[in-house]
């Protein structure tokens, strides 16, 4: 509910782009790039369109490093003409941009990818916690991990943060990851689609947050899994 109110206020609040009755957006475009749920995106779209504007949701996949390098993946949906108009911006920030159709498809796709990352990170953290409990060097596990087909940039980078216990090097804050997990679960509730692993992983993130790890990288869930 908080996320919904926050985003709607950005649109129709006192300083919003459509906050006053006389506001007209003819010929203007609005690109929503915050991580929101599909229904909020659709509601914002209706407001923008009612004022004569064009709306595009644009979700990004990638880390802070990838943002700095301009190698994000941009997921969009909504007004295709606005997608075309924004190509120069998308090329500056990302290696590719997808247009996925009607409003809601980009936000849904982003949540699907986020829950996959969230579950994988919990598995990584629990594996390294078990290695620690067994007396096996986490550095040795990481070296072996990097030689297997399990290795990928995302998990390798997270494993390095866990081994170094460098959770203040924030690529994605734990509260943002947990927010996306919750939004994915909300979507699954609406569709009556069971998400057993996502639900369990979400509890791990919630517990880590309760331990005071807000503001730390999501890999800090390792500290929760080892106790």
Looking at CATH, the homologous superfamily of the largest domain is: N-(1-d-carboxylethyl)-l-norvaline Dehydrogenase, domain 2
Strand content: 5-15%
CA(first)-CA(last) distance: 32 Å
Spans of at least 5 consecutive residues with low confidence: 1-6
Predict the CATH topology of the largest domain.
N-(1-d-carboxylethyl)-l-norvaline Dehydrogenase, domain 2
Number of domains: 2
Number of helices: 11
Structural class, from helix and strand content? alpha/beta
Net shape? elongated
Task: Describe the protein in words.
Residues 24-101 form the 6-phosphogluconate dehydrogenase NADP-binding domain. The chain has 227 residues and is of the alpha/beta class. It folds into two domains: 2-102, 3-Layer(aba) Sandwich (Rossmann fold), CATH 3.40.50; 108-225, N-(1-d-carboxylethyl)-l-norvaline Dehydrogenase, domain 2. The protein is 58% helix and 11% strand. A four-stranded mixed β-sheet has the order 1-2-3-4, sandwiched between helices. Helix 2 links the parallel strand 1 and strand 2. The chain is elongated, with a radius of gyration of 20 Å. It starts with a helix and ends with a helix. 33% of the residues are buried.
What can be said about this structure in brief?
By secondary structure, the chain is an alpha/beta fold.
Q: Can you lay out the helices and strands and say which pair or pack?
A:
Blueprint: H1 2-12, E1 29-32, H2 38-50, E2 54-61, H3 64-69, E3 72-78, H4 80-85, H5 87-93, E4 94-99, H6 105-134, H7 138-145, H8 153-164, H9 174-191, H10 196-210, H11 221-225
Parallel strand pairs: 1-2, 3-4
Antiparallel strand pairs: 2-3
Pfam families: NAD_binding_11, NAD_binding_2
GO cellular component, one term: chromatin
Family: Belongs to the HIBADH-related family. NP60 subfamily.
């Amino acid at each position: 509910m908080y996320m919904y109110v926050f985003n709607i206020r950005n649109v129709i609040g006192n300083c919003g782009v459509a906050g006053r009755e006389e506001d007209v957006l003819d010929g203007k475009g609005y690109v929503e790039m915050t991580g929101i749920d599909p229904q909020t995106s659709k509601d914002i779209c209706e407001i923008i369109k009612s004022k004569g504007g064009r709306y595009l949701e644009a979700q990004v996949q990638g880390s802070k490093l990838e943002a700095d390098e301009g190698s994000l993946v941009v997921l969009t949906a909504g007004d295709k003409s606005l997608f075309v108009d924004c190509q120069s911006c998308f090329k500056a920030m990302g290696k590719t941009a997808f247009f996925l159709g009607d409003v809601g498809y980009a936000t849904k796709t982003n949540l699907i990818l986020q829950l996959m990352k969230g579950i994988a990170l919990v598995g990584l953290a629990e594996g390294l916690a078990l290695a620690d409990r067994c007396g096996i060097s986490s550095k040795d596990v990481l070296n072996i991990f990097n030689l297997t087909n399990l290795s990928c940039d995302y998990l390798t980078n997270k494993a390095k943060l866990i081994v170094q216990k460098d959770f203040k090097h924030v690529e994605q804050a734990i509260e943002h990851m947990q927010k996306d997990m919750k939004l994915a679960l909300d979507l699954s509730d609406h569709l009556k689609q069971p998400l057993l692993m996502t639900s369990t992983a979400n509890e791990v993130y919630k517990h880590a947050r309760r331990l005071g790890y807000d503001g730390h990288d999501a890999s800090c869930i390792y500290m929760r899994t080892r106790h």
